[in-house]
Amino acid sequence: MSPDLDVAVVGAGMAGLTTAHELRRAGLQVRVFEEQDHVGGRMHSFRQDGYTIDEGAEQISEQGYRATWELLARLGVPDHDVPRIGKSVGVWRGGRAHPGVADPSAVLTGAGLSPRARFDLARLLAWTGAHRRDFDADHPERTPARALTVREFARRYHSDVHDYLLQPVAGSFFGWDTARSAAAPMLSLLLAVGPAAGWRTYRDGMDLLARRLAEGLDVVTGTAVHEVVTEEGSVRLRVGDDTVTARSAVLCVPAPVAARLHANAPADELPFLSACTFTPSLKVSCLLDRPLAPESRKPLYVLLTPDAEDDVLSAIIVDHAKHPGRAPAGRGLLTLMADARRIPDLLNAPERQTVDRLVRAAGRYVPGLETAATRHFVHAFTHGLPEATPDALRRRARFMARPARPVEYAGDWVMLRPASEGAVRSGALAASRVLSRLRPPRPAARTRPATRPTEENVS
């Protein structure tokens, strides 16, 4: 009995949609199963009363997002649909915002660092510059940072470099505990994406690329996959109350979910799957009746609030500064990012309590926020971003060297690159591994035997 599909893709985030897109281009019959009622995963956006609200990811970059830009070009997305943000990233210290955190001029302006720490920042920039070729975002396990955690790596520099630069960046953009996550993936990613001047957003919401990819695919939303089993070179999936068979399956879900779904995963895959832990994420979107923002000498897109200054928030994102279309004219939209240390408790708290706690904390940086907010939305992901621990870093090379199999994996955790580009690149990689199994090999060119000239073969 022939399988129902060539390939079943589990998960309609950026990894799953990229995988399906590449396999569909190769002529295979592909279906994507998504448990949620929408596509995009952590790139999802929704629209409410004229606001466009990004639930997860916030930006891409002109640099370090080659696979993403190739997809955008292939789908015909014009450049003006991916505009530059053009605003600064600031850090809070000493009762005020210091802009320029992701700017090379931070060595001169300070960006919240003490004079001694600026000298050490210059040392850090010189060291990463000298080793730039050794920082490959596709192979973070090979960098000269080895398997040091962010905190361990930072010990060679002034404490401010950790407390007012590395920790707030890791804590806000990645949701990481610097004592648990490895420095190599973070440094590789920061070197790849470059300064904030080159950061961009999607004009109509961060799910723009996901929506465009889904338009050309067979995507079934609101449908959970409960189990995936490898059987004699094919795959059986338990989907809702039905069974679906496929020649191959790609699990484009967080590693802990993939490990649970794949009932008979090969033993050599399990160590990396187990090591790829995730941090939860939680944020509150505040719909404002006027465009408030933290006070700063330069307009801010993000204000980082370090652990040394705040134990409730990790950052405030000014969405109407990210792109004016995020809020109706004359109104504003802010996103309050919860501190990773508080998220486990907040995940189980009533939404009203979560909103009150984060809004009260944000009032310190944005006076008038409590009275300006007309509505709030809480966005929480149990599996927010891959934690990229030293253990995962050490185990990645062996996982990546495994042979192509009926069940493959995709997600930013595969690349240990906590960004949508990591998801896109992993999707393309998973598609190539599937095709290496399912696409028949090209026949070898026949070599005609040498013959002596005769009357019959001489023209």
From TrEMBL:
It comes from the Bacteria. InterPro entries: Amino_oxidase (IPR002937), FAD/NAD-bd_sf (IPR036188), Zeta_carotene_desat/Oxidored (IPR050464). Pfam families: Amino_oxidase (PF01593). Residues 435-459 are annotated as: Disordered. Residues 14-435 form the Amine oxidase domain. This is Amine oxidase domain-containing protein. The lineage of its organism: Bacteria, Bacillati, Actinomycetota, Actinomycetes, Kitasatosporales.
